[in-house]
């Protein structure tokens, strides 16, 4: 039986992903939108990593390997190729993927999730696994050559959140769990939103892909700042989870289609940028932009999460046809 809380959280977080990507073309002209963007990026991918960890298995067997290959790595390759092909269109605003081993834009999550699921059986057997994972995440910033290649930096930086989700999230999200009270969760999010409004916070700190040298800080300074931001992201994610409804709504089932929405919305965003849609609204008042983009994000997310779109996109997002063609069941 599916947990409606999990579906509600997935739908809310994927809507934030879409909203954040809508804000990107407008950051230089609207400081409030830039603050909203930093606030979203503070916690939305850590929260997604926690949710992914909460449903992960520690059994390292052929079933896990099959799921990793056919549900994560093959969709990554298919969409990497699709983005490379469509980026040749004249309306596309950038050069597209930079080779097969450098995940394009939002595709980094698929190879990172594959690595997390492979690392989990090992870390589940370790003592002090969370401090060790946090130490590795901090040390990732010392290396200047990780960057976006194979999403190695993000894999290491966000793995502690995946581990937290596997280790603690199912217990925290029980109806009788000792989660923060709703007023406390709201107050915590408001405080962190105020922090995100500080223009001195470089959003590159929140991506998990930049080294400390690239961020122009020392290894010690960078490690301390990353540790503080990881703590803030954890608290923000838990506050959001506390505020997520536990009962089912008519729209709750849409959360089941979050992968299709994650992979497909990038085409709409990039094509809108290339067509000049964001340039047309750049000078609109900030409150109007917030309302319009928020409504649009919910609409796009609901559409792409719908059962119809998921069925149409299934040959790419869940390529069972390739699985049937390539996988040989055990004798």
TrEMBL record:
Residue ranges constituting the Acyltransferase domain according to the UniProt record: 4-301
Residue stretches spanning the membrane: 39-56, 68-86, 106-123, 130-146, 181-197, 217-241, 262-281, 287-309
InterPro entries (alphabetical): Acyl_transf_3_dom, Nod_factor_acetyltransferase
Repeat in keyword set: no
Signal sequence annotation: none
Source superkingdom: Bacteria
Swiss-Prot/TrEMBL keywords: Membrane, Transmembrane, Transmembrane helix
Gene Ontology MF terms in the entry: acyltransferase activity, transferring groups other than amino-acyl groups
Family matches, as Pfam families: Acyl_transf_3
Name of the molecule in the record: Acyltransferase 3 domain-containing protein
């Amino acid at each position: 039986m599916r947990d409606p809380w999990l579906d509600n959280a997935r739908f809310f977080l994927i809507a934030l992903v879409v909203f954040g990507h809508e804000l990107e073309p407008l950051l230089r002209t609207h400081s409030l939108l830039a603050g909203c963007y930093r606030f979203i990026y503070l916690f939305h991918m850590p929260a997604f990593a926690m949710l992914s960890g909460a449903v992960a298995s520690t059994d390292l067997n052929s079933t896990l390997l099959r799921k990793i290959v056919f549900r994560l790595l093959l969709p990554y390759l298919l969409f990497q190729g699709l983005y490379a092909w469509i980026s040749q269109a004249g309306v596309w605003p950038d050069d597209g993927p930079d080779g097969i081993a450098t995940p394009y834009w939002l595709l980094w999550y698929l190879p990172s999730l594959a690595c997390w699921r492979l690392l989990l059986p090992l870390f589940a057997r370790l003592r002090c696994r969370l401090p060790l994972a946090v130490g590795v995440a901090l040390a990732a910033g010392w290396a200047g050559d990780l960057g976006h290649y194979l999403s190695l930096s993000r894999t290491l930086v966000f793995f502690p959140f995946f581990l937290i989700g596997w280790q603690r999230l199912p217990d925290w999200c029980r109806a009788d769990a000792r989660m923060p009270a709703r007023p406390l969760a709201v107050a915590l999010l408001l405080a962190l939103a105020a922090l995100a409004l500080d223009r001195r916070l470089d959003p590159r700190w929140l991506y998990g892909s930049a080294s400390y040298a690239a961020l122009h800080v020392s290894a010690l300074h960078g490690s301390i700042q990353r540790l503080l931001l990881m703590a803030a992201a954890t608290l923000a994610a838990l506050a959001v989870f506390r505020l997520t409804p536990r009962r089912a709504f008519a729209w709750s089932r849409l959360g089941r289609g979050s992968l299709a929405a994650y992979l497909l919305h990038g085409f709409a965003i990039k094509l809108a940028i290339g067509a000049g849609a964001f340039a047309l609204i750049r000078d609109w008042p900030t409150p109007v932009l917030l309302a319009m983009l928020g409504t649009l994000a919910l609409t796009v997310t609901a559409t792409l999460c719908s059962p119809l779109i998921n069925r149409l996109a299934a040959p790419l997002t869940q390529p069972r046809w390739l699985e049937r063609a390539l996988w040989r069941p055990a004798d």
